[in-house]
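Throughout our pipeline, every protein is held as a single compact record rather than as scattered files. The record that follows is passed on verbatim for readers who wish to inspect the format.
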Amino acid sequence: MSEVRDIYDKNRIKTGIIKKREDILLEGEFYMASYVCLFNKNGEMLIQKRSPHKKGWPNVWDFSVGGCSVAGETSQQTAEREMNEEIGYKRNLANIQPNFSSNVMKGFFDFYLIDESINIECLTLQSIEIEQVKWASKDEIHELLDKRQFMPHDKSLIEKCFELKHTILP
């Protein structure tokens, strides 16, 4: 069964249209996604290596967790679901606003920065999505980007995550 998602207008207002994930978005149609960046006490970000079986960007590293919202979900619910599905980590985000949003092409991407020194040995990775996880510094992530071993995010997005982590998290 195919995932369905709510479609938003340019002002991030639901249009009432619901489309399958694989459907092409028309001009003026947007979707929502959430990313969670988990940081440890050393200021490192948990990153995930995508499974070799993933359709898009197999075998490359990415943020801790992330994915598209399904129809009816809030940004917080998407972030919670993705954490639980991808790495087996449960965290209630109901009363937490995203730390920032990024409008990318056809999507609104909400970023949640969470300060949690979790034991990665205790995580349950969803093998169809994730091959492994590790803690990485900003410099290590930049190096992976330079080697094209990290999702092709702009370096300024990585910088923003680390900068905001140091200014808004303990």
The CA atoms of residues 44 and 137 lie 5 Å apart. The chain has three helices and nine strands.
